[in-house]
Amino acid sequence: MRRRVWYNDNIYQKAVIRVKKSPKFWTALVIFSLVGQVAWVMENMYFNVFIYKMFHASADAISAMVSASSIAATVTTLLIGALSDKVGKRKLFICGGYILWGLSIWSFAAIRLDIIEAIFPATVSAAAVGVSLTIILDCVMTFFGSAANDAAFNAWLTDATDETNRGAAEGINSMMPLVAILVVFGGFMSFDQDLPETWTLIFGVIGTAVLALGVAGFFLIDEVPVKTEGNENYFRNLVYGFRPGVIRENPGFYLTLLAYAVFNISIQIYMPYLILYYSVSLGMDNYVLIFAPAIILAAAFTFFYGKVYDKRGFTGSVIAPIVLLMGGYTVLYFFKDMIPVFLGTLIMLSGYLSGMGIFGAMLRDRTPQNKAGMFQGQRIIGQVLIPGVIGPAIGAWVLRDAEMILNSDGTYSFIPNENIFLAAFVAAIFIWVMFIPLFRQIRGEKK
């Protein structure tokens, strides 16, 4: 279905042809985005719980794991994104990558204390080896996951949408990280996470789901033609987005990326420690009962709010998510009872998800045509690398003097506290600073 509409993209009003996307497209978007985010949730949040529970990892070890994974994700997205532009196809990278991604997730089932102690001498700390192996395999898994999802799938999504439906599509894509949290934690909440067998089952189930979707993708995904003229030189493609001339030609993209990086730094200060904060600090063993309805409501809000971007553009839709995000931080910092924690979580997650949707749609709108793969690396730098290195490091610094608890085996573990939300709030203030040059650039484009 095609019809002419007037669209306000914050630059000028123009007549565009709206092309109604097929049910097959929306099905592929929902399933691949959800299952991909289930795998990322396991990496970004469940691995933290895994090495905390199994090997009593410190906040510094968790920060190091997040940072290493962020670097691996960025390098991979740069390499594979540019390669997919050169080849002019995304489908093979998506499907093949998901298959290998699933197999790599399976490999974590072998990281168990009994296996480590059987292989390494008794003089070696099995817990330290477990943490190191997890970090190494995390980087391997991230390579396959970023190739499939961050590089190929996100480039395909940019190619397959336009300025009339990107907000709606990105609203769905952006709500999936927390829907995935609901799926993962809800699905495994009744399992005893102190038992190695539980983690073997978790890795097996998620790995199998990712692998199976990779196979199904050959039937679900329709290839979007990508012009390869001018993209033949692979090594030139790698550095394309870093060239000064390209940056000058696309100031809106790069200013948005800088603001997005600050947004994600704020998120990454608390996110690696969020589940531990609920379960260990607040003693909420039933935290999923708080988290689940908050995620559902925040996801519903994001689904509908994504359409605001399609109607009002970036400047008309980005303010509310930041206000919600900072409001949620405030509630979570001052209150620790169940009802205000639920409300704070709901407000915070609504701002987080809708903010990701608005920033993501803006970046897709500002991505040069037929070069979506090359610019996925830049997107990951702002969304993953910079926040993944800086955010957790700030969180670990904030928790440097956190209270410690004695474990049954004689080791100690830290207890995350509410200061992670105060630090996240302070970081979020700088988002408003980044809006000054960005909004000025948008106003200049309108003239």
Q: Measured on Cα atoms, how large is the radius of gyration?
A: 21 Å
Can you write the helix and strand succession as a string? EEHHHHHHHHHHHHHHHEEH
By helix and strand content, what is the structural category?
mainly alpha
End-to-end Cα distance, whole Å, is 33 Å
Percent of residues in beta strands: under 5%
Overall morphology: globular
Describe the secondary-structure layout.
Layout (H helix, E strand, L loop, with lengths): L1 E7 L4 E7 L3 H33 L3 H29 L3 H16 L6 H7 L6 H35 L5 H23 L7 H25 L13 H7 L3 H6 L1 H20 L3 H8 L5 H26 L6 H16 L3 H28 L6 H27 L5 E3 L5 E3 L4 H28 L1
Antiparallel strand pairs: 1-2, 3-4
Descriptive keywords:
Growth Hormone, Chain: A, two-stranded antiparallel sheet, mainly alpha, 447 residues, 16 helices
What does this structure look like?
The model is unreliable at 1-17 (pLDDT under 50). The protein is globular. It is 75% helix and 4% strand. The protein has 16 helices and four strands. The chain has one domain (23-446): MFS general substrate transporter like domains (Growth Hormone, Chain: A, Up-down Bundle). The protein is mainly alpha-helical. The strands form two sheets. It has a two-stranded antiparallel ribbon with strand order 1-2. It has a two-stranded antiparallel ribbon with strand order 3-4. Strand 3 and strand 4 form a beta hairpin.
